Amino acid sequence: MKRGRIDFLAATSTHPQPVLSVLQAFRGSAKIVFWIIIISFVGVFLFAETSGLTGRGITRGTAVGSVNGIDITYDRWDTQVRALSAQEQQRRGASSLTQDDMRRIEDIAFQQIVDSILLAREYERRGITVTDREIQYAAMAMPHPDLAQNPDLQTEGRFDPEKYQRLLQSPMARQQGLTQFLEQYYRTEIPRQKLFEQIAAGVYLTDARLWRIWQDERDSARVSYVALRPVTVPDTAVRVTEDEIRRYFDEHRDDFAERQGRAVLSLLAIPRPVTAADSAATRQRAVALREEILGGVPFDSVARRESSDSVSAAQGGLLGTVARGAFVPEFEAVAFALRPGEISQPALSPFGYHLIKVDEKKGDSITVRHILLPITQSDSSAQRITTLADSVADVAAAAEDPTRLDSAARRFNLPIARAVATEGEPLTWNGKYVQDLGAWAFRGTRVGDISDIVDAPEAFYLARVDSLQEGGEVDLDDVREDIRRVLVNRRKVDYLDPRARRITDAVVSGKTLEQAAQENGAAVEKTGMFTRVSLVPGIGRLNEAIGAAFGLPVGATSGPVKTEDGVFILRVDARVNADRAAWEAQKDQQRQQLLLRLRRQRIQDFVTALRKEADVDDRRSEVQALTRERAS
pTM of this prediction? Predict the structure, then answer.
């Protein structure tokens, strides 16, 4: 058999209608990577012809990066970006992708290509290959996840192998690219699984380790404690030298992540204010939708058609099964008061008006749906603001002269604000997310560049780059103050130690913890029951104080215990040990769950180590800057 011509089965289908419906569903699925086929062989060509890259010195073969000397071409990266963005767009439905979304997708696509190159080298090093027979077997025994979940390939809610075989046998499967896609999928997936099986093969859990894990999660204690906290010590009481800061930096250099790029922006905002009349109009629309549902139109149909929450709208408004605390208070108060099947009156939250329906109640959890209608401007107000934004854009948008932003601000009496963008993160200003401009600032911009106007739901925005600092290796100046704070905190903890020892000495001499604390101006606090892995309010999690609580006999008082949060003195008031019989009864299930988790972690650690050791050169910003320069 030749590569690319694998016959999964020799026979042909006699059931064309089910096959056609499956192929149609497969192409239309929100998850489906069938779009990768279309994008790879059609979209790339169309984009190359219309993007202006060809003929401007930047081609589809231009390297946007490399891994250990192997180039990552613009063609390969862009194809992956387009595939991922098509999948994301299908998942969201009508909601369009922002530049921030695209920047995240671009980073994911680049990392996926890096990983695939590193893994391919590892396959070669380990002699891992894949045969046509293995692909045939995998196609029959391990169907692609999206096919396994397709309703047309199920009988009574379960995957039906016979229907799946008829699909693979059909001429349409080959004609419409399904068999080619599946072959490529298994050529990629089988070596990956072989490698991961090798990496995770040595993972094993003894009974003794399983019991310790069970104890950590089930042994519980309750304590009384005194906490002496660093915040009570003035900064003037301790001293940290420059030599100590430098020594800490040298000893912990690997702990510091690379410095991210930083851009200082001048920002013009043209808000879209909403009025009481706008709120009333949105509520009235919600009332009309509620009446439509009560009149017999299914809630899920209205949600798909009307809800602004595109993710839940695609699921008929379904938010899932949740416990209290999952939603903002305004939403939660209404949702948990509803009876199953009941439709709420319009409920106002910071996101707008909701119509809420509870499908099911179990204990303190509900399965809930909603329709979200955000409060937006009236047409007349929106038109007035849009006209102003257009006028501002005519003066300054995408201008090469940085003074045009100042001119627009003066002409339209708009204040200029300062915002700081961090590479790889969405821009926030005044505590709010500002769409697109965080990604724009690092797409090959130069100091003085002015953005296009951004049309966001809450405002129009325009930005200018005032300064731009590239990311890179962290130096001492970047983290000096962070290190100083760490060392000052440690000095303060040490400063508190003598006071803590006076308290413990008093306990040793026969006084109660309460008496000793009071004599030294401290208070005794109490916890509820907690385990070794709990987050304990007032004490913390997985620190020395938690360890002391399980190392002392009941009724005993500890000596001073230092943590990053202070100095603690603890008295164990109660302890309950884990039930060994209960552990024995579930031991096999626990082993399987933990083995799966540990194997996944080992694989993740392996891939992380490959990345760390690799020589990865990311030149995307340079290529984008060159593209921008040659397009201007």
Answer: 0.65
